[in-house]
Design brief:
- The protein has 309 residues and is of the alpha+beta class.
- The chain is 31% helix and 26% strand.
- The chain contains 9 helices and 11 strands.
- It has helices at 65-76, 100-115, 124-135, 141-146, 182-187, 195-213, 219-222, 237-248, 277-284, and strands at 7-17, 26-41, 46-52, 83-90, 149-154, 158-163, 169-175, 252-255, 262-267, 292-296, 304-307.
- The strands form 2 sheets. Strands 1, 2, 3, 4, 5, 6 and 11 form a 7-stranded mixed β-sheet that branches.
- Helix 1 links the parallel strand 3 (46-52) and strand 4.
C-alpha cells in the first residue's frame, strides 16, 4: 500500500482505566490532550521534537512510542516506510495513570491511518487491537480510540464497545507530584484472589455500567473494588489515603489506572461545580503539597487525525 499524504495532525485524549472494579476492562476518555504533527520525509531517518510533558526525557529516535507504533501500523497494512519528522505537544502527565503511553501508541497508529492511501485499512477495531497488543491490555487504548466510556475484552483479538455516559457525570483528576511506573503498580498484585472477592468484583463491575449510563447516584457503590487497589497501597500510600478520605465522605473516588492519580466520578450541580468539590477541598485543608485538581470533561470523540494540505 502506498502513502496518500505526507503531513497529518493528530489529537489524542488522556484516559483513565479500571474505574474501580473494572480492572483491565473499563476505561474513560478525558478532555486533556496530546497534539502532534507527523511529516513523512523523502529521506530516511527520524527527527522528534517534544514540548510539555516528557520533554528531554522520552526517546527522540525510532524508540519513541509514537514512531514505533506508527511503523508497526504501516507494517500491518503493508504500507511503505518513510523518514519521519514528529512534533509533539504533550499535556497528558507521564507516569500518573492517565494513559500517556496508550495515548502515544494510539497517536502513532492513527497518524499512520492519516498517512496511508486507504485509511479504512486501519479501522477503529484494527487500531484498538494493535494498540492493545503493543500496550499489553486494552483498557486505556479503547477509550483513547473511541472516546467516552468503554468496555474492552479479548477473545481471538482485543475488542471494545462504547458505554453510555450520563450527562451529569463530572470528573476530577487529582494528580500527585510523584510518578509511578505501571510495572511497579502491577508487580504488587497477587497471582490469585479469594473467590468471595471475585464474586464481589463481578457484581460491582456490572453495576458500574448502570451507574455510568443511567444511575450516577449509584457510583459510590459501583466503584467499590477488592481486586487491585488495596494491594497497591504500599506503592501509593498517599493516593489510597486520599481515596479513603473521599469515599468516607460519600465521594466516588478511585485510583486512576495504575495510579497514582486519584479519579473522582462526581455529579454536576446547578452552579457548574460538582457535588465532590467541598470534600476534595476539605481533604487537603488548603495545603495541596504539589497535588493538582483537574476538572475534566468526558471526551466523547477519541483520537482524531487531519491531513494537512
Amino acid at each position: 500500500m502506498r502513502l496518500g499524504a505526507d503531513h497529518v495532525r493528530v489529537r489524542v485524549p488522556a484516559t483513565s482505566a479500571n474505574l474501580g472494579p473494572g480492572f483491565d476492562a473499563f476505561g474513560i476518555a478525558l478532555g486533556l490532550y496530546d497534539e502532534l504533527e507527523v511529516r513523512a520525509l523523502g529521506s530516511p531517518g527520524v527527527k522528534v521534537e517534544v514540548t510539555g510533558e516528557g520533554a528531554g526525557q522520552v526517546p527522540d529516535d525510532e524508540q519513541h512510542l509514537v514512531v514505533s507504533s506508527l511503523r508497526a501500523a504501516l507494517d500491518l497494512v503493508g504500507a511503505s516506510q518513510a523518514g519521519l519528522h514528529l512534533v509533539c505537544h504533550n499535556r497528558i502527565p507521564h507516569g500518573r495513570g492517565l494513559g500517556s503511553s496508550a495515548g502515544a501508541v494510539v497517536a502513532g497508529i492513527v497518524a499512520a491511518r492519516g498517512l496511508i492511501a486507504e485509511p479504512d485499512a486501519l479501522s477503529d477495531d484494527v487500531v484498538i487491537d494493535l494498540a492493545a497488543q503493543i500496550e499489553g491490555h486494552p483498557d486505556n487504548a479503547a477509550p483513547a480510540v473511541l472516546g467516552g466510556a468503554t468496555l474492552a475484552w479479548r477473545d481471538d483479538r482485543f475488542r471494545a464497545i462504547g458505554l453510555a455516559v450520563h450527562d451529569d457525570l463530572a470528573l476530577l483528576a487529582i494528580v500527585p507530584p510523584n510518578h509511578l511506573s505501571t510495572k511497579s503498580a502491577r508487580g504488587v498484585l497477587p497471582a490469585t484472589v479469594p473467590h468471595t472477592d471475585a464474586a464481589f468484583q463481578a457484581g460491582r463491575a456490572a453495576l458500574l455500567v448502570e451507574a455510568l449510563g443511567r444511575r450516577p447516584d449509584l457510583l459510590l457503590t459501583a466503584t467499590q473494588d477488592r481486586l487491585h487497589q488495596e494491594y497497591r497501597r504500599a506503592v501509593m500510600p498517599g493516593s489510597l489515603a486520599l481515596v479513603d478520605v473521599l469515599r468516607a465522605q460519600g465521594v466516588a473516588a478511585v485510583v486512576s489506572g495504575a495510579g497514582p492519580t486519584v479519579l473522582v466520578l462526581a455529579r454536576r450541580t446547578g452552579t457548574g461545580a460538582t457535588d465532590a468539590d467541598d470534600a476534595v477541598s476539605a481533604a487537603f485543608g488548603g495545603a495541596m503539597g504539589g497535588w493538582q485538581v483537574l476538572p475534566l470533561p468526558v471526551d466523547r470523540t477519541g483520537a482524531t487525525v487531519q491531513r494537512v494540505v
